[in-house]
Fold glycogenin glucosyltransferase.
Amino acid sequence: MADQAFVTLATNDSYARGAMVLGKSLRNHNTSKKLVVLIGPQVSEPCQAVLKRIYDELKVVDVLDSGDTAHLAMMKRPDLGVTFTKLHCWTLTHYTKCVFMDADTMVVSNIDELFDREELSAAPDPGWPDCFNSGVFVFRPSVETHGKLLAFCTEHGSFDGGDQGVLNGFFSDWATADISKHLPFIYNLSSIAIYTYLPAFKQYGGNAKVVHFLGKTKPWSYTFDPKAKRISGNVHEAATHPSFLLDWWTLYAGSIVPMLHQQYGDQPFHSGCVEGESQSANPQQELELQMSSEERKEKWEQGQADYMGQDSFDNIKRKLDTFLK
């Protein structure tokens, strides 16, 4: 389907690496759709070159250079710069239908069936389910819609300071008008939701098709030992399940880093892959080992016990059995 496309946005090199993993994950799961990446002018030449190898179309977008309408809107609301940039996806009018995906998402299954949905289809946000999460949504490119969105942006702003507030304000009847536009949560499994409703994750998580790494700490914020298959980083900030992080890093280290090395050549760059001496711990153990007893206590008090790992029922039962014996 040459007139349908997955679309993402990368405003800098960090998010560009996320976009690389997203694009490669879509390719690996045999999408039949075109892949489009919108990038900001700050994305470096080597990263652009890698993106061009993965995506069918790369388009540089800069709000201040995007035409009079956006320019005038930007003058009134400079605080919404990144939001205006994301709204450029509606200008891709050589496509009849698109699915936008944030650069911090990754597919774990083919999701071409999303193109059977209509604008604006999206999954509920775990923080406020009457709003949709704008990390994954189905839309129809339209110059008219783009203009209306910019006008709405300028007049009403965003209740959350970003694109999600703008889009929920514009498509305000999403919660009530048409249930067919409510995507199942498996198409936008927000990582922070795993611990907030763990029984549901254990029941349905295996059906996940898209993982969304919400929160301040993104997958590329960690470091990875490819030999030991070990992830290191600030686990206290992590709001995702270690197996999803491992999937992201395995794909990034195996497929993306070699392409980056080719493009950077002799120029130094930080890939995030660091080989250490220890090769015994698995990623789950490594993440657990880094969490101090104080941090674990704090997690428990917040209702965020690691039910899938250290604090699993089997582990607790084993410790109780040992104690009682």
